[in-house]
Give the backbone structure.
Amino acid sequence: MTHPNTLESKSGHDSSRGSSVSIAPQTQSRIFERDELPYRVQRIRRRTPTIVEVWLAPVAASMPYLPGEYVLLEDRDQRVEQRSYSIANAQRSDDQISLLVTRIQGGQASDWIHERLRAGDEVILTGPYGTFVADPASSAPCLYLAGGSGLAPMRALLEAALQSSAQRSLTLISWLGPKPTCLTGSCSSAGRLRIRTSGSSAR
Ligand SMILES: Cc1cc2nc3c(=O)[nH]c(=O)nc-3n(C[C@H](O)[C@H](O)[C@H](O)COP(=O)(O)OP(=O)(O)OC[C@H]3O[C@@H](n4cnc5c(N)ncnc54)[C@H](O)[C@@H]3O)c2cc1C
């Protein structure tokens, strides 16, 4: 099943969902390296009245990706249309992937994710896709702007930037989205990250 998202997304990121950082030219060479892999839902947490966070673990092989990239998600039986979702975390040692999904009124996939998807369910991820990734050679200060679930790719990029040794100033301005709690611990106390949020944030 193919959604217009799929076609749109192959040529780049949906720029209306955030703005950011320089594009890394080396990602072009990865463009055809895509996997279609089963993942299992570990947990689903409501993060705002309209956004849930879905944590997925690989059933077998995991998908390598760069922070800022996105995946196509569909149910195992292909009863729900495949949709694009940005990966909301930098790569972890347990290979889990987080997605932030906004419920769209009358939306097929987002309704299904909010209403029917449960821990233990298996989904299929295809990807990674996208060119909205950071230039690893850059040490310039960086400003990340995100609205709603547009926080997802920003959070992945920020986590990766905070894990790197480069001493750069990082600022996140986020509105109407979840509190970026995973970024507010020891990382922010390192003094490199400033976070401003507004709107109806809820954990
Ligand atoms: C690169 C990329 C990354 C993305 N990342 C994220 C992300 O991290 N988080 C996130 O939440 N979303 C993300 N999206 C958006 C996501 O892919 C979906 O578009 C979104 O979840 C809505 O899908 P849906 O199936 O719920 O809605 P759809 O079923 O596609 O419906 C969307 C809207 O159209 C209306 N509609 C549908 N069919 C008709 C019709 N025949 N006539 C009139 N109206 C109709 C629906 O009522 C609804 O309001 C991303 C999109 C792209 C392209």
